[in-house]
Amino acid sequence: MDHYIDLRVRSDPEFPVPQLLNALFAKLHRALVALKADDIGVSFPGHKSKGAGLGHTLRLHGHQARLQHLMQENWLTGMADHIDAAGILPIPAGVQHRIVQRVQVHSSAERIRRRQMKRHGLTAEEARQRIPDTVEQRLDLPWLTLRSQSTGQHFRLFIEHLPCQTTAVSGSFNAYGLSNVATVPWF
User: Fold this and answer.
1) pLDDT tens across 123-177, in order?
2) Mean pLDDT, 10 residues at a time, the chain of 187 residues
C-alpha cells in the first residue's frame, strides 16, 4: 500500500455525521464487492476507542492504480454534497501500521435461542435451558450501522483498531476493507 484517499464527511444540519458515514461506508462496501477488491483497506483516523465514535473521516488505503480504478467507478454518486475527497495521495514516510478489523459477538441470548429453535427444531423451553442469559456479550467499540443486502436487516459492524506496530503486514481485506491480518498505514 503506497497511497490513500481521505473522504471527510461534512457536517450537515439535516443529517448527522454518523448517518452519513454509514451511508458512505455502505456505498464503499457495494463498490468493493462489485470490483471483487481484496487489496483496499480502510481506517478511521478520528475514531474513538470506545463507543460509537468513528469520526468524520473514512480513509482508503491501497496502490495508486487500484484506488484510481475504484474512484472511476462513480460509487460516490449521491454523496458529493456530503463529503470532501482529498484526492489520491502518497503515504507519508516513516508511518506506523495497524490492523483494522471487524469484531463480532453473540450479543443477544434471545436471538441465539430463536436461531437454535429454527435450525435444530428446539422448543422455546429447550432453547432457554441450553442457552442461558450469561452467553450475552457486549462490546464497547465504535460501530457502523449497515443493512444486509441479503436479509434486509440492520446490523452493527463493530470496528477495532489494534495497537500500532512498526512493520507492515501484507494480506487481503474483506469486502468491508477490513482484515484480521493485514495492516494499513497509520498517520
Assistant:
1) 999 998 998 887 766 778 899 999 887 788 888 899 999 999 999 999 999 999 9
2) 97 93 96 97 90 88 98 94 95 97 82 88 91 77 88 89 97 97 98
Distance CA 49, CA 144 (A): 14
Q: What does the alpha-carbon distance between residue 22 and residue 147 come to, in Å, rounded to a whole number? A: 10
- Catalytic one among 29, 56, 97, 161? 29
* Strand positions, DSSP E, 14-165: 41-43, 57-62, 83-90, 96-98, 100-103, 143-147, 154-161
Phi, psi of 147 (to 5 degrees): -115, 130
* Backbone angles phi and psi of 148, in degrees to 5: -65, 130
Q: Is 71 within 8 Å of 88 (Cβ atoms)?
A: yes
Asked about 3 being catalytic, the answer comes back as no
C-alpha cell at 2: 503506497
Q: How far is CA 169 from the centre of its chain?
A: 19
